[in-house]
Amino acid sequence: MKTYLDCMPCVVKFALSAIRKVTDSEEIQEKIMREVLHEVSRIDFTLSPPEISHIVFRYIKEYFGDVDPYLEEKKRFNKFCLTLLPQLRERVVKSKNPFDTAIRMSIAGNIIDSGANTNVNERDILDTIEECMSVNLYTNEGVFALYEEIRSAKNILILGDNAGEIVFDQLLIDQVPKEIVTYVVKSAPILNDATMEDAVETGLTKIVKVIGNGSDSPGTILDRCSPEFIEKFNEADVVIGKGQANYETLSDVDRAIFFILKIKCPVIARDMGYSDGNCIVIKKNKWESLYGEKCLKEVS
Question: Which of 85, 163, 258, 278 is the right S-S partner for 74, CB 3.0 to 4.6 Å?
Fold first, then answer.
């Protein structure tokens, strides 16, 4: 997905929010923001929004070093989501369709997105769980196709998104043979994206194999990823991309990918052909446009 003009306010907002998490000095904030605004004025709109965000975040790292502005926020949401996990797991097990319920829970966790919402809180998470359990899923046969392909898969690659959200993804992992799953996190901090530290902290490494993708960019920018990851990506029978940034960076890639997310941006909604707030499970096929010729359906 390319960058649109409407993406610019969010880029600036995210930059300022990240800078303020690192320093209270308005002088330093102004200095870095001036550099960010200068860079934004020269951006290539053919790049994806996560690529633009990575360029902007580079200025923060250059000034402050290997700082993680979202560290405390990530720990807070990891801890909160872990307190919810037992009751959510029981809810999945007792539901009429555990696979569908696990998908909905995984989508609910996607609300924990500091790139899209700098003010997300615990109440938002609880409300989103109930919302995702009651609304229709929007899909181009994605839920059924995902279930069928998982049944025959020999290896599954899940591209994780955010800290806290990775706890919800454990509910989806419960529905598949864990020995064939590889879960992917970022290799260095960017926004509130999950890293190996978060995977260890939430117990994910005790459940499935977890690898870093070799990158510190939002989403999955393939030319910035490690050879180990690229090999896994190419060989996987099933690839699941969680969240908006994975859609933004992989929607034009030439291979089949399932995208599971909650739309939290009107620009992405327009690009996908859905509405802001929709819960999405779609499959993008190799050599086929996202929409193809299939009828996009609501699934209750």
Answer: 163
